[in-house]
Amino acid sequence: MSGEHMQIGEVAARTELSLRTIRHYEETGLVIPSARSQGGFRLYTEADVARLMVIRRMKPLGFTLDEMRDLLAATDRLDSGEELPAAEREELLGLIRVFEEAAQQRVADLRTQLARAEEFAATLRDRLPQDAAV
User: Fold this and answer.
1) Is the pLDDT of residue 19 over 50?
2) If 0-12 CB within 10 Å is exposed, 13-18 middle and 19+ buried, where does residue 6 land?
3) Are 5 and 34 in contact, with CB atoms under 8 Å apart?
4) Which of 15, 39, 60, 110 suits 101 as a labelling partner, its CA being 20 to 30 A distant?
5) How far apart are the C-alpha atoms of 16 and 24, rounded to whole Å?
6) Helices 65-78 and 46-58, interaxial angle, to 10°?
């Protein structure tokens, strides 16, 4: 991982998040820029980008900001490099398991919704005259 810093515009391009969204996540405490330039510009690292990607992936699954915060706190603690007591480590891993199961269920729900949407679109397409379908 590089120690190079990126400005918010580059981070937005890499994460496909808007500047406004990144600032919102900063305001809510989900991500904090690693540094500021002398001119006061937000500066981010690869770790910050990875954190934003976790958030970006959780959002379409309907996770709340508080749930995102809880998961990120757990992963931060596990990734801290600190030697954790076994009970705390198991508790954190248990929380991550709960999130993984919730994510899997939400993905399954989205697949069901998508299948229904595709069926509906096919029903509409079948009602159109063949020469009208372009």
Assistant:
1) yes
2) buried
3) yes
4) 15
5) 15
6) 140
C-alpha radius of gyration, the chain, whole number:
20
Residues forming beta bridges with residue 35, ordered by sequence position: 43
Neighbours of 134 (CB within 10 A): 4
In sequence order, which residues have a C-beta less than 8 Å from that of residue 77 and are 6 or more positions away?
84, 88, 92
Q: Which DSSP category does 34 fall into?
A: S
Place of tokens 């198991």: 90
Token code pair at residue 14:
């890499």
What pTM does this model have?
0.82
Nearest Cα to Cα of residue 45 among 106, 83, 2: 2
